[in-house]
Amino acid sequence: MSEAGTKSADKLIPAATILLLRDGTAGLEIFMVVRHHQIDFASGAPVFPGGKVDKLDMAPGVRERADGMEGLDDWEFSMRVAAIREAFEESGVLLARNEQTGGVVDAGRLKSLEHYRDPLNRGEVGIADFLSKEGLRLAGDMLTPFAHWITPNMMPKRFDTRFYLANAPEDHVAVHDGSESVDSVWISPLQALKEAEAGTRTIIFPTRMNVEKVGESPNVTHAIEAARNRPVVTVEPQVTKNEAGEPVLRIPKEAGYSVTEEPLSAVANVAKPKAG
């Protein structure tokens, strides 16, 4: 790797996100939040709950309170912890179990934990302290790796993001936090794509590609099983030109998306390149 490439890679910000899924009356639905306009990534666009890995996600005591994450290296482990923590902060859905009963926290218990969302988000409480104090274990086994995207190198801020699927507990009421996220919706992938095409929602390219891919499944069980049987191929979109000399964003065919290139002019919110 060149010196410039190394410097660019050093600036990657580890992040994680969850596609929370449920079976609606008309089929598979996903939970999406709309980011506040002051957020520096995907402001105003519907995205999946998620965010940056926090140094406290790897604090002493976290590993011993995590199920289904044995043997993972620190990078992958911190991604899954961040995914669960961020989903709780942004949507109120908590993928965790009572350490005494082994059952996923129910709606009643979840309500009693609501007041932790803001302190966790602000870093005033670490995930290890939260789990210890409340007698909880992270349900990492509820996460299924789905995708891995790296922001193009022409962007001023670059994220190294893992996407996971999770079946949202039936009695958890997903709702945006009102600060980072100002709106939320359970929506079918087809409806989300229709609204993006109609211009009523602006969905950024990685989100749109993953909405489309998960929408290939008719229900939650099928989506999770398909993801388990499909290798995750890292996608780092490259800006190049097509045969007509037009600028496009290209992604690897092996990643299994419906397109391998997209006109740069059509890629919502992706092209805010660095000056110079």
Describe the fold and architecture.
- The chain has 276 residues and is of the alpha+beta class.
- The chain contains eight helices and 14 strands.
- The protein has helices spanning 3-10, 74-91, 107-113, 117-122, 127-134, 189-198, 205-214, 220-228, and strands at residues 13-24, 27-35, 46-47, 50-52, 66-67, 96-98, 136-139, 144-150, 159-167, 181-187, 234-235, 238-241, 247-250, 261-263.
- The strands form three sheets. Strands 1, 2, 3, 4, 8, 9, 10 and 11 form an eight-stranded mixed β-sheet that branches. A three-stranded mixed β-sheet has the order 5-7-6.
- A hairpin with a 2-residue loop joins strand 1 (13-24) and strand 2 (27-35).
- The two termini are 22 Å apart.
- The relative contact order is 0.18.
